[in-house]
Amino acid sequence: MTGTEAAPDDEFAAVLRPVRAGSGFEEALERILQVLRLGLVPYGERLPSERELADRLRISRVTLREVLKVLQDQGLVESRRGRYGGTFVLYTAGGLSPEGRSAPVAGGTAAPAGAELEDLLRFREVLETGAAELCAGRVLDAGQRALLRDCLTATVDAPLGDYRRLDTRLHLTLAELSGSPSLAAAYTGVRASVNDALDRIPLLVRNLAHSQAQHTALVDAVVEGDVEGAREVMREHCAGTASLLRGFLL
């Protein structure tokens, strides 16, 4: 994109927000680390161009290059020159590359435990159910409805290795379409922490099938303007994830 404003419906909009003056480097680094931790750009794929990143974050190209240099020094990205060059991601959620090699963890932390995990799960449920309710209560245009359907379809067809990234994209899109930038911004941080915890438990095929049924019901409720239905489906969805995390991590 060529302007300074992110399109309201794209997958990066909730994360790559303009940074505050006076802390551009630190906040820009945090934002791009969130892109990596959320899996919005998968292993081996290219980050948005320097121009686009600088425009979205509203920082200078010099500052952006300093940020990218830090990420490269940490082994999280690599820079390639030439016609098909750019900055390519070496990090993948869970700490392994698709070839099975160990990969660095981008800002990963130890799995939350006890009260910390309970607090995270409660806050996640509040944000997720609120986003679902707000989305269903809005009049979404044709493009926004199509975006939700596309995100849903991508999760249905996803191989296991890509599922978490595409699941994250669907949930981030719901947060972004809620119409509340503050909610969307808060959710990105919470989702990154939730993904850190989810990366420490196995992907269960039966659970994924159940989640997909809930995703379908959720998107249907949002598109149809069923506020109560959307909220209830999301509450059940969050409760199921919470049960798995408590079972494996507590």
TrEMBL record:
InterPro entries: GntR_C, TF_FadR/GntR_C, Tscrpt_reg_HTH_GntR, WH-like_DNA-bd_sf, WH_DNA-bd_sf. Residues 22-92 form the HTH gntR-type domain. SMART domains: FCD (SM00895), HTH_GNTR (SM00345). It comes from the Bacteria. Keywords: DNA-binding, Transcription, Transcription regulation. This is FCD domain-containing protein. It comes from Streptantibioticus silvisoli. The lineage of its organism: Bacteria, Bacillati, Actinomycetota, Actinomycetes, Kitasatosporales.
